[in-house]
Write a structure and sequence with these properties.
Elements: H1 17-29, H2 34-46, H3 63-75, H4 81-86, H5 88-93
Helix pairs in contact: 1-2
């Protein structure tokens, strides 16, 4: 049977004793192992952050800017659905993410 777990690399990490205790307490409070808790924190710290703005959150549209966007959109074709699905930043920019 093949294990679905990824291989982990053991590492030595030096921490301030007070910080270590606070991390352990938080891990227990969330019913996680210390290792799982620290991994979660590190993963979240490395996630890309995109603001969740809606079109109505923006300022009133500028007619000159809208004209420029219309002109540019004729020169640059919009991305395909596959491109939007493969690139979260692009999807966000196009208002699809």
């Amino acid at each position: 049977m093949i294990s679905m777990k990824s291989k982990k690399v053991q590492t030595g990490l030096r921490l301030d004793p007070g910080l270590l205790e606070r991390l352990k307490m938080k891990a227990r409070a969330e019913h996680k192992t210390f290792n799982a808790y620290v991994e979660d924190i590190l993963e979240k710290a490395l996630e890309p952050v995109f603001p969740k703005l809606k079109r109505e959150d923006y300022l009133e549209p500028d007619p000159e800017l809208e004209a420029l966007i219309r002109e540019l959109s004729r020169m640059v074709p919009p991305p395909t659905q596959e491109e939007l699905e493969a690139d979260p930043k692009l999807a966000h920019i196009w208002g699809e993410g």
